[in-house]
Amino acid sequence: MFTALFDRLGNWNPQLLRELKGRLRPRNLMAAIAVSAIAQLILLSVFGTQLPPSFNPHEHLRLTTVPEIDFTFGTSTLPNYPPNLRVESVNNDVGQLYQSTRVISTAEQPKPGDRIWQIDGQTIDTFNDSFANVVDALRGYPGNQSLVNNPLLEQDVTLLVERPGVGQLTLSLPRVAVSDIYSQYCATSPEITPSPYDQGYYGNSRCQLNPEQTEFEIDWPAWYQDVFRGASLMLVIGLLTAGSFVLIQNLDREQRRGTLTFIRLSPRSSFNILSGQILGAPVAIYIAAALMLPLHVLSAVGAEISLVDLGAFYLVLGLSGFLFFSLSLLVGLIGKGLGGLQAWLVAGGFFLFQLVIGMAVSNGDFGSPFTLHWLILFSPASVLHYLLGFEAATSSSQTFEFAAYRLTLLSFVTLFCVNSLVWSLWLWHALKRKFVNPQVPLIERRYSYLMTACFEVFLLGFAASSNSFQEDVVLVAFLNLLFLGLLIAALQPSRQALEDWARFRLAERRSQRQALLKDLVQGENSPAILAIGLNIAIALGLMVIWTLQRNMASSTHELLGYIALGSLILIYASINQVWFLTQVNRPEIWSMGTLLVVMVAPLFARLLLEEVAALASVQFLEAVAVPWLMTPIGQSYGWAILSQWLLLIVVNLVTLRQLQKAGESGSKNLLARPKSALAEKSS
């Protein structure tokens, strides 16, 4: 039976069968089982120790009065001066009473400021100026006796107090036995309001006894909810981090051994091969995660989370896994020179990202709607915001919103799925291209325009829900700078492709040439300046619409800043193009280093010139080099944009000269060969 199953699996996806044969070994299976079991034991042990202990009347009960009195006790060095005992505060909420008592009226209760003269007929000076003796007399002290049905519970404590403006009063307060154990998982009574001072080692809730007064009442749904929270974070962080690490490490091993080249020659499609990698390489991680599912499901049931909501969590977890594993494969294909360190860096980045987002969302601390709320669509732990009840229990400032609309669980899961599928499609577009031919650009130019529009829709959708426009406009501009900077690298052809394009275009007849404009917009080997310019225009156009919608009154400043930002990104693209046409080794390294200097140096200069930021010359430099900060005035932006365009013209003239030189030298070589061959033949 297993032979037929493996044959069928091999016919469907040979790469998956190959990975399973290499990974499903006893050692790997035992390690997966051990890791999953240890993680679950640690989780249960951590939360198990926070439960209240088994009830023991000798250890967990103490005598006090109703109400409970907090007092100040002081003595004097003067002779014949009695100790001073005054009521500092009165606490009527003493927690669960072990034995029912009579209810006294407000007039019978002590008040802050009352001076206590006698306790059960004994004056204060008979207690030998001892604080402990006063506590024993006031609250009762049973010694080693059990407080269950203790005679002291039937006796009242009689106080002779002196009340300012009233005189001396005699008060009788009942004694009761109360629990002195605290835990965040103890059940609370709706009739009792917790005191600010009512806290202990285990938590902030004083434990109550059950009706039979034999055990502490535990809020099991709250405990299961925290276990579910911990198990969910373990699943999210462990699955995405460990799975990404294994995929990148496996791909690096294939490249070092040279087997990746043979895999590329397979008649199978790139999707079939790469999906086999995703399904097969982390199979031990999948087994460990599957072994945690029973605890996860049981804790969800105990936390009163519906199976439909739980299914939503598993749906977004699966889509996130596909997205992050696809990104890991892409990083593994394009990453060079880092070796095994690359897997650790990527997995470490994923770990920190999922940990920060997961902890913030699962604790209800993600804050009010903000542009960076887009990050929640890349962490499946964000569904815990709804599953743990934060959406219903918190104020409107703790909601998730998109395009100024509050997201319900259904709309959030829908938006999450759309976001994951959209970016997974773009990743697989790049994966297929790089797997078949590592020399081609990551993204086809005709699709890059749609990808830019997708980026802007998601980014500005969350920015539209924020109430901090001035901060958002800087953040949106900066994120666009990062995205379009990555797009420059994704669309850049190799130096050999640029030289071939210039050579054969010059050698071809005009009638056979493709239209230059179409070639620059959709071609694969032509310079990418125009394509990047169109992507910048799409991004800036959508940003302008968002700005006008948010800030119709005064938007001239932001619009000039956007133009300066677009011009600066075009300068970056032109500098990158110059390096790829220069005869140097590893032009991408030179280009990256130059762009980093150009981006970072102005920021350091701005920090150094902070004290003279109001000068016109400094504002001009900021408008030229860091327009995404949106700080210069309109006049500075005008001169800065003019300067940027002049610099852009100069850099592109250099690029044009390089292309002409490459095309002419190549054409001369092509035309010189036939002439030399004819001369040799005639001789």
UniProtKB/TrEMBL annotation:
It comes from Almyronema epifaneia S1. It comes from the Bacteria. Keywords: Membrane, Transmembrane, Transmembrane helix. The chain crosses the membrane at residues 28-47, 227-248, 269-292, 312-334, 341-360, 372-390, 402-427, 447-466, 473-491, 528-548, 560-582, 636-656. This is ABC transporter permease.
